Please model this.
Amino acid sequence: MIEKKWWMTTNIYQIYLRSFYDANNDGIGDLLGVKEKLNYLKDLGIGTIWISPHYDSPMDDNGYDVRDFYKVSSDYGDISAFKDLVRSAKEKNMNIVVDLVLNHTSDEHEWFKIAKDPKHPLHNKYHDYYIWQKPKYNNHKERIRPTRWVSWFGGPTWDYNEATDEYYLHIFSKKMPDLNWRNKELREDMKKVIKFWIDLGVDGFRVDASNHLEKNWDFPDGVPGYENFSSIPKHHEYIKELALELFEPYNLLTLGESGGATKDEVLKYVGFDSHEFNLLIHFGHCWADTGYTNDKITGKWSKTDLRVVDIKKSYDHQYKMIEDKGFNLIYWHNHDQPRVVSHYGNTKKYHVESARMLAITLYFMPGTPIVYQGEEIGMTNVMYNDISDFRDVEVFTEYKNMISNGASEKEALQAIKDRSRDNARTPMQWNDRINGGFSKVKPWINTNYNYDLINVEAQDKHKDSILNTYRFILNHRLVDNENIVFGDIKFININDNESFCYINQGKSKDYLVIANFRDYEIKINLDLDDFQDFEYFYGDKISLKSEMILNPYQSSVFIRTKA
Ligand code: GLC
Ligand code: CA
Model:
């Protein structure tokens, strides 16, 4: 039997602070804006809010580039606004989880400024907080980078520092130098940061880029070289140190981030006795429609037909790796992926149907769920027509890469429109008034112009709206967490590439979910002997038959009470 923890029976909502709600009308979402929307979230069934980085930052990567860990960004408010938010959340019995960026700082962080300046009295100490290598030279005696590793945002991972005649490592943007976690003083400094926010009342951390903390210090060359800065076993030691000293004694919720982890690794991260994280953000289901088509547009930017099978198998695999040795996490997407309704659903004729289908298929599964802001109203990918509308640091390098690989501007723009992280970062659509009710002034990133149709206010009153579907399901999870959250999932026809069906077996009830993931009619076959006594519970009214025809995106939930 699993020992119940508070973070298992809560519903998490991820807020991308910059784009959620601008309470002081300067075009940027803020902490006061979150506070003002707490009742909206409470009604939605949310118990825990994860807020993207709120720290002082030059905003090269919207706050993942931290300049001062002890300060709130003036874009978002100040320490008293933060305390106020925590207090208001507590009054409503809600928890606040903040992003914790451990892998790197901003190049404008005090530590890095000292680290790159050999004349500074504290140079030696802080120089070792970062990762440096001497230049190499080619046959023409020209200075070249220590390795050809490629950063997660495209482009090289090394930039030159004249004053020390060295390169510093950055696996993200060049304004985000990587920290040296082997350095004990750095680790102690980071623990102070963590303790500072614990003392301010946070209930947990989402630990950013957590599988990158350790690097291969032999610095072998290789392209792209990811294996030299991802999932190197020693990073578990750093996480464990933080868990034993801070995360666990304070009963915090911690979410780690790691793609493609093996069973061994997953259990290290979230196994009940392994003292690292509580939940793991995995990505196996996130790109079920990528596929190599040509050399011009590759990786996550390349798009082919959706493999529904891959989504089901990814979750199935995750459940089977963890079993009852840890706890599962379910979510469609975060601020790094396209909008799920554009990605896996339909934004035209079947917008509502497909968004409801996505809600039904995911949120009757076991585990702790995360809903990403705007998902609950079916917000779509950007409708921009010009590359200058985009804001994400990654977009510009990758756009150039595509063009230099031979893509036309049109092809590159289309790939950016389909896949870029900005898709998830347009302002939240609250109503049909100016800027969708996000702000009274021009927002930092353009609002999607479909806010007149897709917004909270418009969906609030409609019983069958996307918003009310989310409200119903999320609140129902709270009522029946025993059977849903702690259930045991079995996919039905897992190899079928059109349907999405499973039974979630609980203690006293079983839930059966039947859905069509396609924009055309499909046929499914069920062995009815296995499905006796199921009764219609929620979604589209269909009756269970051994051979069923499902309309586009039709989805339905059945329930069976155990004797
Ligand atoms: C994580 C974040 C992403 C950020 C990166 C660097 O992957 O989710 O948004 O750019 O880390 O901090
Ligand atoms: Ca603001």
